[in-house]
Amino acid sequence: MSGHSKWATIKHKKGALDAKRGKIFTRLIKEITIAAKTGGGGDPDGNPRLRGAIAAAKAENMPADNIKRAIQRGTGELEGVSYEEITYEGYGPGGVAVIVDVLTDNKNRAVSEIRHAFSKNGGNLGESNSVGWMFSKKGVIVIAKSAAGEDKLTEIVLEAGAEDLSDEGEHAEVTKIASTYTKLEGSQANAMIRLLEVLEDLDDTQNVYSNFDMDEAAMANAGQ
Predict the structure, then answer these.
(1) Can you tell me the distance from the alpha carbon of 35 to that of 123, in angstroms, rounded to the nearest whole number?
(2) pLDDT in tens, 55-74
(3) Is residue 18 a contact partner of residue 206, using CB atoms and an 8 Å limit?
(4) Mean pLDDT computed over 91-103
(5) What's the rounded Cα separation, in Å, for the pair 107 and 105?
């Protein structure tokens, strides 16, 4: 999980800037809308995806009215933009695998922007399932260190059947974890960071996953 967790840490550094741009709220609203539309209706008790989206929105202090309107747009009670869910796959510098989850109202625009992002940052867009087979969807649950000691947490993790325990991460989420990782150094590591940042900054992007890894120094200097 090291590559994913390190990128999550890097993204956290950018969180305040993204919030100023309104990107976090925009992405959360789109996720709530599509979850209400496709995940089983506007009742979070019967719609796990919507329940998770609402929890994420509340964690970012999104006003309840914004959440309510997003749900209503998803269920059709209010008029709104119709979004399409698309997953794009490709390769970054050094052959690193990249998956981009998109929610868009314009598929042609989305694929054009993503292809451009790859080509201008040392990568290329691939075919469907060109790298997706390397990733598995997993749940990530974060527990405060003050809640229990490492030995106790390890015991709980093993008893619950979890696959891993690490000292990284900021929040609970459903994510995609790669089966193997590719370590990058120097210019390739920097180019990979640029590619991920460009992909993250696209308006249609919801999530970006990769199987890259890098050393602690590269992570510390990322985004600077």
Answers:
(1) 31
(2) 999 988 999 999 999 999 99
(3) no
(4) 93
(5) 6
Q: How far is CA 179 from the centre of its chain?
A: 17
Q: Cα separation of 36 and 125, whole Å?
A: 30
Per-residue CA distances from 171 to 5, 26, 32 (Å) = 11, 19, 18
Q: Which residue has the tokens 């075919």?
A: 127
Hunting for tokens 């989420």 — which residue is that? Answer: 173
CATH of domain 13-75: 1.10.10.200
Task: Provide the 8-state DSSP code for 196.
Answer: H
Contact 184, 212 (CB under 8 A): yes
pLDDT tens-digit profile of 37-58? 988 788 999 998 999 999 999 9
- Going 48 to 49 to 55 to 61, the CA torsion angle's sign is negative
Other beta carbons less than 10 A from residue 157's beta carbon:
15
Q: Is 63 exposed, middle or buried (0-12, 13-18, 19+ CB in 10 A)?
A: exposed
Q: Which two tokens stand for residue 57?
A: 């929105």
In the chain, what are the domain boundaries? 13-75
- Say which amino acid occupies 99: I
- Distance CA(166)–CA(154), nearest Å, equals 10
In terms of phi and psi (left: phi > 0; alpha: psi -120 to 50; beta: otherwise), the region of 43 is beta
